[in-house]
Amino acid sequence: MSNKEVTPLVPREGWHVMHLFYQVDHGQWSLLDDEEKRQAKTRLTELVQEIRATDDTHLLVFSIATPKADIGFMLLTPDLQVANAYEKQLTLSLGADVLTPVYSYLSQTESSEYTTTEEQYAKETLIGEKGFKEGSEQYEAAIGEFNERMEKYLQHRLYPVLPDWPVICFYPMSKRRSGNDNWYSLNFEARKELMSGHARVGRTYSGRILQLITGSTGLDEFEWGVTLLANDTIDIKAIVYEMRFDEVSARYAEFGDFYIGMQLPLNDLFERVCL
Ligand code: 76R
């Protein structure tokens, strides 16, 4: 990375995330000769390699279904200065005006304020449901397992490594703030209760859907970016449909546009988008 003298913008916790969507301008592309086209593709390939070799940085590359866009990138990296520099380079990588930005989204990875606490797990699950005695061997072992699981889980939310599952679905969403349906005027207990219903539905998709919720309040138009990875589009359709019946979504969620992409190796991507 150049620009070493610029003050880094690394959040206290988590990473910056950019979703970038481009259309290919085939008119501009056709003005390049074969050698220029080859060089352009090499430039993008080398840039992708450079980004992927950067510490704590991940880049997903995908082809977008339908003409909403052609190429999508999801970039995760701590420093906003680095994200910004890479984003500009990606835009120009195939030559001036070949990639036209059509949509983009800036967010950050975040932990959730609704995550189960050790205290809550002990009281509700271990003592309440399982009838364990506080301080018993069984109880201590279960607490140990819980903490280990939560640590891994929190690590995934803040510093995710996403699998190469082919289907990627992105859409932005907010919680409604109108009249009697104002999420932000509910008290914490009510929100937590509703979110535990949401999580219960979500967990039934374990192994089929990987969700990454990134926060964007104050950073972009909506309040969260929703990124879902899957091996089968039917699971995307099913989870989004089922969530609509859950009160958190039924009553409080508002959505932006949906993008469906397919993760592909770069050479296949070039072929797919006819470059
Ligand atoms: O802490 C956790 O991550 C587990 C519980 C959980 C939280 C806190 C969870 C589980 N989600 C959480 C937060 Mn979710 N999620 C969405 C959508 O299309 C729609 O209707 C909504 C889009 C899907 C499909 C989904 C899937 N979730 C959030 C938040 C932040 C809310 C806030 O802070 O107020 C949003 C915006 C959101 C939206 N969720 C799950 C899933 C799935 C599959 C799970 C289970 C994950 C797992 O256990 O592995």
Entry keywords:
Alpha-Beta Plaits; elongated; alpha+beta; 41% helix; two-stranded antiparallel ribbon; 275 residues; single chain
Task: Give a verbal description of the structure.
The chain is of the alpha+beta class and 275 residues long. Among the domains are: 16-109, Alpha-Beta Plaits, CATH 3.30.70.1030; 111-161. It is 41% helix and 25% strand. An eight-stranded antiparallel barrel has the order 1-3-2-11-5-9-8-4, surrounded by four helices. It has a two-stranded antiparallel sheet with strand order 6-7. Helix 4 crosses helix 5 (137-158). The longest helix has 22 residues, at 137-158. The two termini are 27 Å apart. The mean pLDDT is 96. The site of ligand 76R has 23 residues, from helix 6, strand 8, strand 9 and helix 7.
Give a quick rundown of the structure.
This protein is of the alpha+beta class and 275 residues long. It contains nine helices and eleven strands.
Largest sheet: 8 strands, antiparallel, barrel
What is the name of the CATH architecture of one domain? 2-Layer Sandwich
Low-confidence runs of at least 5 consecutive residues: none
Number of helical stretches of at least 4 residues: 9
Q: Tell me the β content.
A: 25-35%
Please state the structural category. alpha+beta
Give the tally of β-strands.
11
| N-C termini distance | 27 Å
CATH top level label of one domain: Alpha Beta
CATH superfamily descriptor of one domain? Apc35880, domain 1
General form:
elongated
Written as H for each helix and E for each strand, in order along the chain, the element string is EHHEEHEHHEEEHEEHHEEH
Work out the helicity level.
40-55%
Fold-level CATH name of one domain: Alpha-Beta Plaits
What compounds are bound to the protein? ligand 76R
Mean pLDDT across every amino acid position: 96
Strand order of the largest sheet: 1-3-2-11-5-9-8-4
- Using only CA atoms, what is the Rg? 21 Å
